[in-house]
Amino acid sequence: MKKSWWKESVVYQIYPRSFKDSNGDGIGDLQGIIAELDYLKKLGVGIIWLSPIYKSPNDDNGYDISDYKDIMKEFGTMEDFQLLLEEAHKRNLKIVMDLVVNHTSDEHKWFKESRKSKNNKYRDYYIWRNGKNGGPPNNWGSYFSGSAWEYDKNTDMYYLHLFSKKQTDLNWENPEVRKEVFDMMKWWLDKGIDGFRMDVISLIAKDIEDGDDKPNSNEVNINSARVHRYLKDMNSEVLSHYDIMTVGETPGVNPYEALKFVGENRNELNMVFQFEHVGIGDGEEGKWGKSEFSLKEFKRIMSKWENVLEEEGWNSLYLSNHDQPRSVSRFGNDTEYRVESAKMLATCIHMMKGTPYIYQGEELGMTNVKFENIYDYRDIETINAYRDYVGSGRKSKEEMMEAIYKRGRDNARTPFQWDDSSNAGFTKGIPWIKVNSNYKSINAKIEIGDEASVFNYYRKLIALRKKHEIIAYGKYELILEEDENIYAYLRKLNNETLLVMCNFSDKSPQFDLPEDIKYNKNELLISNYNVDSYEIEKIKLRPYEARVYLINNM
Ligand code: GLC
Ligand code: CA
Prior knowledge:
Strands 13-12-11-5-2-1-15-14 form an 8-stranded parallel sheet. A 5-stranded antiparallel sheet has the order 16-17-18-22-20. It starts with a helix and ends with a strand. The protein is α/β, with parallel strands linked by helices. It contains 16 helices and 22 strands. It binds alpha-D-glucopyranose and calcium ion (CA). Calcium ion is lined by residues 21-23, 25, 27, 29.
C-alpha cells in the first residue's frame, strides 16, 4: 500500500456560514476562518475542507453556484481567500475546496443563456427534454421533494434538477461542459489549493428515458460506465498533474463499486464518502421515516467497507457532516453520557483504517437542536419535506417536527459554539440561524481549558495518529462480531496489534478477549475513563467506555 500525506492526516470540515462571523452581519465568513486557524492548529488537524464559498444566491447555502471563479459576497473577496490560503499554508494546513459540478445555480450565466432559446450556444450545457402526456418527461423525483423536472415556458420544455429547481443539472455528455469544468478546476489548483471534495459526483452521468422508468421515483438511472470515463478524463487532464487529495461524495455506491472510483490503479479519485452507515434502518420514507439503529448492522457495514477497500482502496471515515445530524445525538447519548459517548464515537472512527473527517463542532460534542417552530429552520430540504408531508396529510405537524429533530440538516448547521457570550461568540449581530441554547455549557472556550473535555480527547487521538504508524496503516480486523453492545476490532502492522473496544450502550457489558489473541505486553494508549489495571482478558466496560491498547505480539 502506497503511503500518502492524506492517509496520515485528519480532515476538518468547515461549513463557513456557521463557523465564525467577523463583521457582525450574522453570517460566518473567510476572515472569521482566518481568525480561527490557530484553533484548528491546536486541535491538530492537517486538512481543511471548506463547504462551498463560491458566488451563490444561496438557495441551498452555496451548493448552488452562480460563478465558479468568484467568492460569495457574504463570505468576503478573492483577496480574503488568497489570505486564507496563505495563512493556512503558513501553519501547514491544507485547503480542500468543495467542487459542485453536478449542477449550477439557475442564476449562473450558462443557464441564463441556456434557457433563452433552443439554439443558444449554451443550450446543451443543461438537460432539456420535451414533456410527456402533458406532464414531465419521466417520474424522477428531486431529492428535495417534488418532480426533478421543471417546466420552462420560454421554450416549452423541461429542465432536469435532481436537487432544488434552482440547482440545474449540467449536461456532462457535452464535451464543452467537461472542458469548462476541467479548466475551472485547474484555475483553482493553480492558485495552490490542495484538493477537492466532489459533490454528488456519482450522479453526473444519467440515462434518461422517456416515460417512467423507475418504480421508485427517487432513484435516478446512473450510467456508471460514463461516470468512470469522465473521472478518468478529469484525472488525466487535471488531477494527475498536482499533488492533491480528492474525495467524491457518492450516494448509492457500494464498496465494490467504490473500488472503481478509488482503486489505486484506476486513476480516478483517492476516496469516496459512502452512505450505507448513515442510512441504517431507513425505510420507505427515507430519512424522514422511522429508523432503528442496530450496532450489529453498523459493525457489518463498516467492516465490509474496511475489508473490501483494504488492498487497493482507501476509506473516508465520518459520522457527521453538514447533511447529517450531530453524531453524539444520533449514535451516542447527548444527555447523561454526552462527554463519554462523544469520545467513544471519536475513538471508534479515528482508530479505523482510513482518513477521519471531523465536522465542525463534533470535537466539542455539539448536539442536535430542537426549534419549536418550522419558521426557525433554514434548510431547503427540511422546509420542502415539511411542506410535502404535512401539506399532503401524510404526517401530522408533530410527527414531522419529531422527524426533523432526529434527522434534519439544520441540526449540524447551528452556529459554532465558541464561548458563553451572546450568540455563543459566533457573531455580534443576529445569526442567520438560531444558536443552540446549550452553548453556555458546551463551547470551545470551556473545553480548551478542561483537560477532560471532548476537545482535548480529540487532540490526543490526532496526536496518537502522528505517533503510531499502525493507526494509519494497520490492517483492520473485526472481533466479537455478534456482540450487540460492544464494537471491538484489531489493527495489525508488523509485530504490533492495536486493540480497540467501544461500548455503544449505557449498560456495562463485559468485554472478553478472544482466546487466540496472545500478547506479552500491553500499553493503554487512550481511554475515556480512568483505567487502573493492566487486565485485558475480561473487562466490565462502563457506559460508553472506549479503550485502545497497543499490544506487542509474542
Ligand atoms: C450534497 C451536499 C448537500 C447538497 C447536495 C446538492 O449532497 O452535501 O449539502 O444539498 O449535494 O448539492
Ligand atoms: Ca460575516
